[in-house]
Design goal:
Elements (H helix, E strand, L loop, with lengths): L4 E2 L7 E4 L8 E2 L2 E2 L9 E3 L8 E4 L2 E6 L8 E2 L4 E2 L24 E6 L5 E2 L3 E6 L5 H15 L7 E3 L10 H15 L4 E8 L7 H6 L9 E5 L6 H16 L5 E4 L4 E6 L10 H14 L3 E4 L9 H5 L5 H20 L10 H5 L5 H8 L8 E5 L9 E5 L5 H10 L4 E6 L11 E5 L2 H6 L6 E2 L8 H16 L5 H4 L15
Parallel strand pairs: 12-13, 12-14, 14-15, 17-18, 17-21, 18-20, 19-20, 21-22, 22-23
Antiparallel strand pairs: 1-2, 2-5, 3-4, 5-8, 6-7, 7-9, 10-11, 10-16
């Protein structure tokens, strides 16, 4: 790699090291005053105490003491500018996306007009008390009948469904109902205990209109042998879904989630901008992308608000941000208690730094809609979705809202995967090489190549995944759910 540093925006007063660079080296016309680790920042000029640190063309912090040109700029000499409450104004920014040629994908058409990129058989527990039974039902079924004719049998366990009150109880029920309806499932067995808060009859009320040959229900306390009863119901569902066949459709049929986790100083330079280019591509093709992680919009939220398609959508974005800030305050927490230790080690200094990098995944297109807890993604184009930054909760929220797969950028690496294909996109080539069993795509290659070449390769991978190629999380069988909780557990 010839390039060793980068100035992301001409307005920036810091540069970022693309590899480890040594004291006294001259980079971007500046002599380094100390060693700078890959992903970390150094000052391009003298910065006075109180002056803003500019990265991505926007303030990410303020200096708490004088910083000399060539010095390391990080948590030891800067602080966040974020405050608890802000007044927002709508200054619409309109970006016209260039025309693209849509690719084709082979997907499973569903009776309700949706499509799936997998045709799987799922067992969904309504309560954590039957997690063991759910696992045993799936294993017994696979050992007895196999999974020929469809894409596998899985259960998604969780510890909830009982001893919850109010919003937490409703959120558990809603998330599980959304998962049952997900088009990547050819069929589902909903498994209950019988005495839990999340009662089966009330649960069914949110599933009106489902095909009862594909969605079946079992309450363990109501049968003598729940394992045999469950296996038999799976057998019946399997006979139905074995007839499902893939059909060719335009890539615009896909809904793609955008997520980052274990970010580093290269996240906003390589992987996130590349994913943003993909978002613009599929939106221009008529498809859909979904950006969540609301706390990781703090510090960059005004940029997203200005991209709202109209005033009503702007007001939804303001509600999204303010309600999540209120959630922090109700729990006695500051809104800027981020980034994580791993983020900081990778070069991310403040939440603004993290957020401005994180939101690169959304590309440049207009925000078409905002989806809250009780909704599905229905608007084509870029959507914002309510939810936390926590990897497992965020991916569950994104997938439950209707996304077929998730693009997950990471600079530190993680083996995690959701209940839909979760493509791991490395920000740097070292991670991609060292954790090839986790990583699906190396965005670090943009530093040796160019964004356009790597975008075509990323589109190729997404098409292959939609057509059935397993993601690394599927190969490793790391397919999990986590339900976001805010209230009291009895």
């Amino acid at each position: 790699m010839d390039r060793k540093t980068i100035i992301i925006n001409p307005l920036d007063n810091v540069a970022v090291a693309l590899c480890d660079i040594e004291k006294y080296g001259i980079y971007e016309g500046v002599t380094l005053a100390e060693d700078i680790v890959k992903g970390h920042k150094f000052a391009l000029r003298n910065i006075k105490a109180g002056e803003n640190i500019i990265k991505y063309g926007s303030p990410i912090a303020r200096a708490v003491k004088d910083i000399k040109a060539g010095e390391h700029v990080h948590t030891h000499n800067v602080r966040t500018n974020l405050s608890e409450s802000l007044q927002y104004t709508y200054s619409r920014v309109s970006t016209k996306l260039k025309k693209v040629t849509p690719r084709k994908v082979n997907v499973y058409p569903r009776a309700n007009g949706e499509v799936g990129i997998r045709n799987e058989l799922w067992v969904i527990p309504t309560v954590g008390c039957v997690n063991g039974q759910a696992k045993l039902i799936v294993e017994t079924f696979k050992n007895r009948y196999g999974t020929n004719g469809f894409d596998g049998a899985f259960t998604y366990t969780h510890p909830y469904g009982c001893s919850q009150l109010g919003d937490d109880h409703e959120r558990t029920k809603l998330i599980l109902q959304k998962i049952v309806r997900h088009p990547n499932a050819g069929g589902v067995l909903v498994l209950g205990l019988g005495c839990e808060n999340n009662q089966m009859e009330q649960f069914k009320e949110g599933l009106q209109g489902v095909d009862l040959s594909r969605v079946k229900f079992l309450v363990c306390q109501e049968v003598e042998d729940e394992i045999e009863s469950g296996v038999e119901l799976l057998r019946q569902i399997a006979q139905v879904i074995k007839g499902d066949k893939r059909e060719e459709r335009d890539i615009s049929c896909l809904k793609v989630g955008l997520k980052c986790g274990g970010s580093d100083g290269l996240s906003g330079i390589t992987a996130n901008p590349l994913v943003g280019m993909f978002s613009d591509y599929i939106v221009a093709a008529g498809g859909t992308t979904v950006l969540s992680e609301v706390p990781e919009m703090f510090g960059a939220e005004q940029l997203l608000m200005n991209r709202a398609k109209d005033m009503a959508t702007f007001e939804k974005v303001v509600r999204l941000i303010n309600e999540f800030k209120d959630y922090f305050r109700r729990n006695g927490q500051t809104v800027y208690e981020n980034p994580s230790p791993g983020n900081k080690a990778g070069g991310i200094t403040t939440l603004e730094d993290k957020s401005l990098g994180c939101t690169q995944k959304s590309g440049s297109g207009p925000v078409e809609d905002v989806v809250f807890d009780d909704g599905f993604v229905t608007a084509r184009g870029l959507n914002l979705l309510n939810g936390p930054g926590n990897d497992m909760c965020a991916v569950t929220n994104i997938a439950a809202a209707g996304c077929h797969l998730v693009l997950f950028t990471t600079g530190r690496g993680t083996p995690f995967g959701g209940f839909v294909p979760t493509l791991k996109i490395a920000t740097n080539s070292e991670l991609a090489a060292n954790k090839s069993n986790w990583i699906d795509f190396n965005a670090g290659a943009v530093l040796e190549s160019d964004f356009e070449t790597q975008l075509e390769k990323l589109i190729d991978l997404i098409v292959e995944t939609a057509n059935g190629k397993p993601a690394k999380n599927e190969i490793n069988q790391t397919k999990e759910i986590a339900i976001f909780k805010t209230g009291v557990t009895l």
